[in-house]
Amino acid sequence: MTTRQFVLASGNPGKVREINQLLESSHIEVIPQSDFSVEEVEETGLTFVENAILKARNAALHSGLPAIADDSGIEVDALDGAPGIYSARYAGEGASDEENLIKLLKDLEGVAPEQRTGRFQCIMVYMRHAKDPTPIICQGTWEGRILTEPSGENGFGYDPIFFVPSHNCSSAELDPDTKNSMSHRGMALRMLVEALS
């Protein structure tokens, strides 16, 4: 079976690596949009769905390949769902993962452990081309709690402060295979692969 190539509407190396690991057995390979010199599109949507579609459309338009895009983030109940769609720029435009994480911990100072509930959300979109009127949209959700300090070296983004109750550790303390089997992105991508086959 030949491997199908799609453009991934992201240049984030952590995300590219994670998605290709998840796709290993599906004969699908994602190529980061940076390989086609695709500029990041402005995320002007008000939902994860809108932003994922904006990103997929932009990547397909400039690469000429079918596109996969995801928009994901962390929602914290004590903050009315923030950072949500602003997770990647919570501490400001161009903020690092660490700066975003530090801001979230600061915003949760004094919040009791049982009220630090939250979840990772991932919307995964597939578009055959930039004008695809019926994109495939899949959603994955991963429930957990927000720790008071980072723990673990694996993963990226908010993984070091996302506590996974079933494994009694942070997402950043899980090995990649375990994380991929339960994560929001893993869930959404498996649904997408199923839809594509």
Number of strands: 7
Main sheet: strands, sense, barrel: 7 strands, mixed
Q: Quick one: overall form?
A: globular
CATH class: Alpha Beta
What is the CATH architecture descriptor? Alpha-Beta Complex
Oligomer: single chain
* Strand order in the largest sheet: 2-1-3-4-5-6-7
- CATH topology annotation: Maf protein
How many domains? The number is 1
Low-confidence stretches: none
Sequence of secondary-structure elements: EHEHEHEEEEHH
- Tell me, rounded to a whole number, the average pLDDT: 93
Number of helices: 5
- Please report which band the strand proportion falls in: under 5%, 5-15%, 15-25%, 25-35%, 35-45% or over 45%: 15-25%
Q: How large, in whole angstroms, is the Cα Rg?
A: 16 Å
Any descriptors?
alpha/beta; 7 strands; 197 residues; 7-stranded mixed beta sheet; EC 3.6.1.66; Maf protein; globular
Task: Summarize the structure in words.
The protein is of the alpha/beta class. It has a single domain, classed as Alpha-Beta Complex (Maf protein), CATH 3.90.950. It is built from 5 helices and 7 strands. A 7-stranded mixed sheet has the order 2-1-3-4-5-6-7. Helix 4 packs across helix 5. The relative contact order is 0.16. The mean pLDDT is 93.
Could you outline the blueprint of secondary structure elements for this entry?
Layout: E1 4-8, H1 13-23, E2 28-32, H2 48-63, E3 67-76, H3 97-107, E4 117-127, E5 136-146, E6 162-164, E7 169-170, H4 176-182, H5 184-196
Parallel strand pairs: 1-2, 1-3
Antiparallel strand pairs: 3-4, 4-5, 5-6, 6-7
Helix pairs in contact: 4-5
Outline of this structure?
The chain has 197 residues and is an alpha/beta fold. The protein has helices spanning 13-23, 48-63, 97-107, 176-182, 184-196, and strands spanning 4-8, 28-32, 67-76, 117-127, 136-146, 162-164, 169-170. The longest helix has 16 residues, at 48-63.
